[in-house]
Structures are given as C-alpha cells and as structure tokens.
Write a structure and sequence with these properties.
The chain is an alpha+beta fold. The chain contains 14 helices and 13 strands.
C-alpha cells in the first residue's frame, strides 16, 4: 500500500500519520520503463518526484552530449518541485530512467500548500536558499557577460585595425608620391614650359576622375592601350603610369591632348607630374576614408556605451540600433542587414545603455540562429501605444516548446560560453520592469521576430 511505503521512508520520519496521508492524497504513483524521461532540463520544475523503486539518472547537457551528474537509486531520494518555493524554478537537469522504476509525484502547487501549512519556518529557509542560489547563478551570468564583452572588444579591435592599417599604408605611400610630384614639377620647370602650357596641362589633369573609371576587363584593356601609346611616344615607366591614368579615367584621346600641350622633352615630365598628382589624390582619399571609418567606430562605441550621458534620458532608438549593428559588425560576415526606420519616429524615455544591451542580445541571438548566412531585419516604427523595434532573422526558428520558455530566468539553448550572457529574461526585465514596455516573440522557420514596444514619455 502506497501509504505504508511512504511511511517507511527515512525522508518522512518527522511526519505525522495525518501528514503522510495528506501527501498521499495529493500525489500519484507512476510506473516507468527504461528510457522514459521524467522531466527535461530547463523546463519549469512544476512536479516533485520521489523514488520508490528502481534507478534514475540525472543528466545535464554539456556541449552536444548529456553527462550523468547523479543517480537516484535509493528509495526516498527526490528531485524537482522547485516551483513550490520559487515561481521561476526550473529543472537543473533531466531525469532519465535506467531501470524499471516506480516514483511518487506531487504537483509543486500542492506541495507548496502542504509545506506552508506544516513547516512555515522551513519554507522561509528554503526561499532564502533559493534566493542565494539565484544570486550565485546571476554572478555566473555576469561572468559570462564579461567574457562576451571581451569577445566584443576583440571584434571591435579587428574592425578598427583594418582602416588603421589602410591609413598607415596610405600615409607611407603618400611620402613617396609627394617626392615624385615635386621631382616631376622640377623637371617641368627645367624644360622651360610656359605658364600657359602648365595651366593647360593642369586643366587636363583636373578632367581626370570626372567620369566613372572602367573596371574589370575594361580597365585591363584601357591599361594596355595607354601603355602602348606611352611606349610609342617614348614615355618611360609606362607600366607604372598607365595603370594610374586608366584608374583615373584617361584614354588615348586624352593622352593626345596632353601631347599637343607639352611637346618634346617635357612630355615625360608632364606625364610623370600628372601620374604623381593622381596618385597623391587617391592616397589622400584612402587616408580620409580610413580615418573617417575609425572616427565612425569611435562614435559608435561612444553611443553604444553612453558613458558621457545621463542614465535616464530621451532616447532615439535608431541611434542605439545603429551603434549596436556597428559593434557587432565582426559577427555579421555574410549576413545581409535590412534596415527600416520610420522618418517621424518619436523619442522615448529610458536608459540608452540598458536598451543597447537589449538590442545586443536580440541581434546576437538572431545571428546565432542564422549561422554564416541569412538576412537580419532591423525595423523601428511608431504605433498608437509607443515606439516598436523589431529584430527579425531568417534562421531555423524556435520550437513551440522552446518559445514557451524563452523568457524564463536562466533558460538557454546555447552551449556554455556561447551568447552574450544576457538572457531573454533579463531583456524582458529591462524592457518591462525598467521601461514599462512589452516584449514578445513570434517564431517560425525562416521568419523569427522579437518585438519590443516602448511607451512614449508620460505614457507609462
């Protein structure tokens, strides 16, 4: 008889006969076969399981494999039921039957009612213990967030390194180009060309770059034609000058016009001067583009971190979205980013630093779901309730089971060391509790959208 079996367990030694009878009345006995699963890791711990007979492994997924953490094989051992003391309690592992077994199961709600009636002080102790465990887990999450921050910093360093290296190369080559420019100008002066000739030559130089330069096969063909013309007119270093002129948009007809302005011995110096001037202009443009890119990255970091701004302020969400996309640029790779921002988007009131952390988490999740290829959709618009931000992806989507628990504390489908360390539960708290907004998830294969709605100032 179930009552007698429970009465004989050491676990229930301190119970009165009436308490054991109450426990039997709210529970049920289950017979399980090898391979059956009692519960799954990460799911709500809404039942308390008490072993009566058999053997059950408690396993956790580490990487791609399940590892046995403990085995229940002594009658009276138990697992789960955490929601009797913690509304967010989840199973820390999965229960897998390894021998034919019998268990006694009680719903967490029933267990809470009984324990509050029988052992009110013990319930307070358990609640404190659960709170401590949650703080420890939260600290572990913060550690993961620091690791993720290191990864973010490494990616940013890589993003800055590319334009910085390009700027260094351009400046280094600029010195040589300026030397060539001055040398060719000296040789032009030595050939005693007139002021009118120099002005006409400079006018031809200014024409370069006005039209789009050829590319691919057309560029190679233009280089060959120019090199042949230069060689036929005894202009040395045609293999150096021709590519520069072709990239600037010069053709044979343009060269004929130069030859009509600068004749004889001055022709070589004239082409050297035009080539050096075009190279100098190109290198200055490369240095400007590179340093501008560095400046844009620094501005993005400043906007992302919000270090020089008040904690709570009026926020234009598109600024945070753009700075977040820049910060995560090293992760995007072959992913296409589609932006859709309403022109008349109103501001919201909140903490831009916290909101940027939410955008980081949502975009990072979307990138993980797509892998190396896909489309990231970032949309912002206003409706009658506030400002709406949508982060969508074309990844594999979430199962109904995973989607149902996505916003629960400490729930994750990622391996250890993956992700930002900022779960959707914390994102929900930032949006809902800190900003009075809403967050919802709509997922299907190839089209997953997380929608965040933030109220307008005074609308909370």
């Amino acid at each position: 008889m179930l009552y007698d079996e429970l009465r004989g367990l050491v676990l229930l030694d301190g119970f009165t006969d009436e308490q054991v009878a109450e426990l039997v009345a709210v529970g049920e006995e289950l017979h399980l076969e090898v391979g059956d699963r009692l519960f799954d890791e990460g799911r709500p711990a809404d039942h308390w399981w008490l072993l009566l007979e058999g053997s059950i492994d408690l396993v956790r997924r580490i990487g791609h494999e399940e590892s046995v953490q403990a085995t229940m094989q002594v009658p009276g051992q138990w697992a789960g039921g955490f929601r009797a003391w913690d509304e967010h309690g989840v199973y820390m592992g999965s229960g897998r039957v390894v021998q034919p077994s019998r268990v006694f199961r009680v719903a967490a709600e029933e267990l809470r009612t009984l324990t509050q009636s029988w052992f009110p002080f013990a319930v307070h102790l358990l609640t404190g213990l659960v709170g401590t465990a949650r703080r420890i887990e939260s600290n572990a999450r913060q550690r993961e967030a620091l690791v993720a921050l290191g990864t973010l910093a490494a990616g940013l360093a890589h993003e800055i390194n590319n334009p910085a290296s390009a700027a260094v190369r351009a400046v280094g080559a600029l010195q040589e180009s300026c030397d060539d420019l001055l040398d060719s100008l000296h040789r032009l002066a030595a050939r005693s060309i007139s002021a009118e000739q120099f002005v006409a030559l400079d006018r031809l130089r200014r024409e370069l770059g006005q039209a789009p330069a050829p590319a691919g096969v057309a560029l190679a063909s233009a280089e060959d034609e120019l090199a042949t013309w230069l060689s036929d007119h005894d202009v040395d270093r045609d293999w150096v000058i021709a590519p520069v002129l072709a990239a600037a948009g010069a053709d044979v007809a343009w060269c004929e016009r130069v030859a009509s302005v600068v004749e004889g011995p001055a022709l070589q110096a004239g082409f050297d001067w035009v080539s050096a001037a075009a190279t100098t202009t190109t290198l200055i443009g490369e240095a400007q583009d590179s340093t501008r890119r560095i400046s844009d990255l620094v501005s993005a970091v400043k906007s992302y971190s919000q270090l020089d701004r008040a904690t709570v302020q009026r926020v234009q969400v598109t600024e945070g979205l753009e700075s977040t996309v820049v910060m995560l640029g090293h992760r995007l790779g072959g992913i296409t980013v589609e932006r859709s921002y309403a022109d008349d988007l109103p501001v919201v009131e909140g903490s831009p630093g916290e909101l940027n952390q939410v955008w980081t988490n949502l975009i990072d999740n979307a990138v993980d779901a797509m892998g190396d290829a896909g489309t990231l959709r970032v949309r912002a618009y206003a409706d009658e309730h506030g400002v709406v931000v949508e982060i969508g992806d074309t990844g594999h989507g979430l199962t109904e089971e995973v989607a149902a628990h996505a916003f629960e504390p400490f729930f994750t489908t990622k391996e250890v060391g993956k992700g930002t360390g900022l779960g959707l539960d914390i994102s929900r708290r930032i949006v809902v509790e800190r900003h009075g907004g809403e967050i919802e998830l709509d997922s299907r294969p190839g089209d997953t959208v997380v929608r965040v709605r933030l109220p307008l100032p005074g609308g909370r």
